[in-house]
Amino acid sequence: MASAAAGSSSSSSAYSNSPCAACKFLRRKCLPDCIFAPYFPPEEPQKFANVHKIFGASNVSKLLNEVLPHQREDAVNSLAYEAEARLKDPVYGCVGAISVLQRQVIRLQKELDATNAHLIRFAYTNNTTTTSSTDDSMMNNGGGYGSHHHPPPQGYSSGGAYYGNYNGGGNYSSWSGGMN
Ligand SMILES: [Zn+2]
Fold this sequence. Notes:
LOB domain-containing protein; elongated; binds zinc ion; 2 domains; LOB; mainly alpha
C-alpha cells in the first residue's frame, strides 16, 4: 500500500510566509524583525490602513521604537482607536467622544447631587413633621432642580419636570450613534 505523497507539507509556521498587514500595505518584504508584525496581523488590514492614513507609517515605526516592547501593543491599540475616531470624525476625532463623556459625568454628578440633597431633605422632613399631608404638599410644588446646593425651605422637589429635562438631552445618543 504505497500511499501517495502528501500534497502539502505543513511547514512549521505558515504565518511567517505571509507579510504583516503593514508590509503588505507598503508592498515591502516583511523581515523577521519587522517592528509592525506583532501588532498588525495580516487578518486586520484595515487597522494598519487607518493608522497609516492618520499618523503615517514612519511616525508609527518611530513611536514604537521609542516605547518599551511590553507597552507597544497598548500603544498600537490606542493609535488604532484614535485613527479610527479621526477618520469617522475629522474635526474632533476621539476628543469628541471624550468631551461627550465628560459632559455626561458632569450631568450625572449634578443628578447625584440633586438626588442626595432630595434624600436628605426627604429624611429631614419625615423626621420633623408628624403629619404626612405636609409632605405631600411639599412634594407637589415642583421645580427646584439646579438649586440643590441651597434648597429653599419650600418647594424643593424633583417632580416630573426634572426627569423630563434629563431625558431631553439627546446629544449623547446621537453622538454614540455617530461613533459607530
Ligand atoms: Zn512586516
